[in-house]
């Protein structure tokens, strides 16, 4: 299962590198796969049989016959929107915040292997193998590799896991340029904002807002609009940020997932959202 995801993410990440630097084709391929494997393989080896059975059940559910009504995301009842309360963490990724605000991730902001795979497949429509690879990567770089948990925001505040070997898990708040990256569609680059990658960037927000035609009553923030914004923020970051940085994984594969996941998964919330409701909390 996960071998396909490794190959997919690896191929995605290599597209941008080898197209820009053709001479590095074979060298980067070897380097990328070796390092990606080193990051996630120890996590995969810690997954017990019960958890593998749950992952298999998630994959089987995905293979069921497509049903247009059943695929809609439930935002009622236990999945109604609730803002975070004191002690509940949220981070720089709006998509992950949505999952916690709607109870698909634990509302504390701290999630685990199975819960996060289930949410990414059920809500964002991600393939089980790809979700497994990305969650394993999250746990490896900012999570708890022993408990197989990770935080979408601040560190859960655990003690040192293994003195001299494993430090406390950091959470996504501490993952910029290792998981999260520059060129966000609405946030600032770390170097240009003195490390503040959480607050909205007014210039980028206004550019996104102004991409819609005021004379078209049906204009909405669909995939095409988000793609245009993504291309613009990437170019703007490259031009203005002398320390612009993207690791290979973010450079293509994660940006692709960030761009397509939300519009395709929340059709009534995102694809049909118009200027009048852009600032509404979701």
From TrEMBL:
Signal sequence region: 1-20
InterPro entries, alphabetized: Chloroperoxidase, Chloroperoxidase-like_sf
Top-rank lineage group of the source organism: Eukaryota
Occurrences of domain Heme haloperoxidase family profile (ranges): 77-282
Entry keywords, A to Z: Heme, Iron, Metal-binding, Oxidoreductase, Peroxidase, Signal
GO MF term set: metal ion binding; peroxidase activity
Cofactor(s) demanded: heme b
The family this protein is said to belong to: Belongs to the chloroperoxidase family.
Name of the protein in its database record: Cloroperoxidase
Provenance organism: Wallemia mellicola (strain ATCC MYA-4683 / CBS 633.66)
Organism phylogeny: Eukaryota, Fungi, Dikarya, Basidiomycota, Wallemiomycotina
